[in-house]
Amino acid sequence: MKTKQRIVQGALELFNKQGERNVTTNHIAAHLGISPGNLYYHYSNKQEIIRAIFEDYTSELLDRFRPYESQGESLVLLKHYVNSTFSLMWKYRFFYANLADIVSRDTQLHHAYLEVQEKLRVNLVAIVQSFLTLELIEVDSQDMPRLVTNLHFIATGWLGYQSAMNANQKVTEAMIMQGMLQILAMVKPMATQLGREQLLLLEEGLQMSCVAEK
């Protein structure tokens, strides 16, 4: 693995474990067993490393949340999006937990974040439309934008909310799974009979995972 990639992965690991505010470039260099000079050869400061992590996050986000034209097994599709949400929130948990602070300190990063979120929203509308086509939910067209906003809000804001409610408590997988349950609860009132059956299966799986984590 190239040094530049090792720096990004090492920084992500430390940010998740210790909190981005508590980690310096010297900590990252020591963690990787390289000199600070070697790190600065690739990244001039910590903010550049955060931007590189965000680029990786963006690539994964847009790939995982792209609409699929195939109308195959709907439960598989639902599981894919739920698992993708969980995986991203866990892998980049430092970012989700402290989003407002991180983007407020970097205008360039904030602009990039807004651009990505606009692309994501287009994809989310198409994904929800596919759930309509698969007859998993029933939603009036006028309510579609609000539903997408609410789902997006829970996914992006859940860990920030949990961090505020549980100060100094580390993010756990069970905490993220509770966020997934919250998303399912948002969708359930508009689910069809088929949709409710499949949401229940997903719900039971998440609840079992939450119990196992405790």
TrEMBL record:
Going by the UniProt record, its keywords in alphabetical order are: DNA-binding
One of the Pfam families matching this protein, by short name: TetR
Annotated protein name in UniProt: TetR family transcriptional regulator
Show where the HTH tetR-type domain sits.
1-61
Q: Which residues bind DNA?
A: 24-43
A Gene Ontology molecular function term of the record: DNA binding
Q: Which domain of life is it from?
A: Bacteria
**What is the native source organism of this protein?**
Vibrio inusitatus NBRC 102082
